[in-house]
Amino acid sequence: MPTPTDAAVVWNSALLDYDLGGSHPLNPVRLDLTIRLASELGVLDGISLLVPEQAPESELLRTHSAEYLDAVKRAPDVPYDVGHGLGTDDNPVFENMHSAASLVVGSSLLAANQIASGATDRAVNIAGGLHHAMRDSAAGFCIYNDCSIAISWLLDNGFDRIAYIDTDVHHGDGVQAAFYDDPRVLTISLHQHPMTLWPGTGMPSESGGEHAPGGSVNVALPPMTSDAGWLRAFDAVVPSLLGAFRPQLLVTQCGVDSHRDDPLADLALTVDGHRAIYQRLRDLAVHHAGGKWLALGGGGYQLVKVVPRSWTHLLATALGRDLAPDTPMPQGWLRAVRAAAPRLELPTTLSDGGDPACQPWGGDSEHRVDEAITSTRRAVFPLHGLDPDDPRD
């Protein structure tokens, strides 16, 4: 196993308390299984996991209203008359909701602080990435928006140009809303087309406010887009914009609900595609942001077969300990899962056998994703001084 690079991982089992209960899709077992898998494969050998604390109210108020915080704190006592998006099927009220959600935020702030302080260049919080929460409401399984809060904190602690890249299958609407008119933050979201998936936002025309034209970038991908199509779109949009924006740091939401087996959406990526995404993000951080990369988790609802493998690749990539796709699943991990779910068919390696190789975009229309690529480039590239029709830009 290679020695670790300048990177940090935030984790504590208390993060499993962010539990929406019952049969809710966002089951924290996915986090536990990820850490167990990464540990058994040696990815975390020699790494001192950083233990987070709850974010104080003053930090939550960066992107949430005081009224909303009060509602979250009161919710367990009045679960059927809360408002603010709480008490719904998506965002059910649970005991200690405020403290559990505050701990997720505290985890992302701790990871951000590692980078801002110079202790590391890369930091990971797989429990983070709750990108849908709005200023005054919960949304999409997200109580507090740790992504937005961490970015706001970074803007006050040494950074004034931050690029946020969201690879979740759902539009990164909460982060876009928080910084829609802030020229210091470039938000880029690649997601399933909003006409086919909640939350119904994220069209290419959503391109930034009056003071931040081109500051919001949305790539709306057709259902069943595969590894090759997704990566083709990424390569056709993201590197050029980062080159023009010149960020000092990348913040990425690394949701894995884009996988072909995810029960809540309709893209068709594989674990191999996710691995390729993380390697691209790491390379882009090196080439455009001095190597500085804050990686957060996100969605992902195939709890056993997908999330642990994909995010083990994320951890390995951030730590410079890349794992080969054909790495066998460790027997200890398999035995533990079989004991809990004996009928579940389990993967044998860290690969789905996917092929993430893609053809570069060249202004043509040979691929299903090209309409999405062209729409996004024409909406935002001119605002960054780039030619939307020139493949060299």
Automatic annotation (TrEMBL):
Domain of life, per UniProt, equals Bacteria
Any matching Pfam family:
Hist_deacetyl
- Provide this UniProt record's keywords sorted from A to Z: Acetoin catabolism
Q: What is the lineage of its organism?
A: Bacteria, Bacillati, Actinomycetota, Actinomycetes, Pseudonocardiales
Signal peptide region: none
Q: What is this protein called?
A: Acetoin utilization protein AcuC
Q: Which family does it belong to?
A: Belongs to the histone deacetylase family.
| UniProt keyword Repressor present | no
Q: Which organism is it from?
A: Haloechinothrix salitolerans
Where does the record place the Histone deacetylase domain? 24-317
The family database entries (InterPro entries) matched by this protein are listed as: AcuC (IPR003085), HDACs (IPR000286), His_deacetylse_dom (IPR023801), His_deacetylse_dom_sf (IPR037138), Ureohydrolase_dom_sf (IPR023696)
Pathway this chain belongs to = Ketone degradation; acetoin degradation
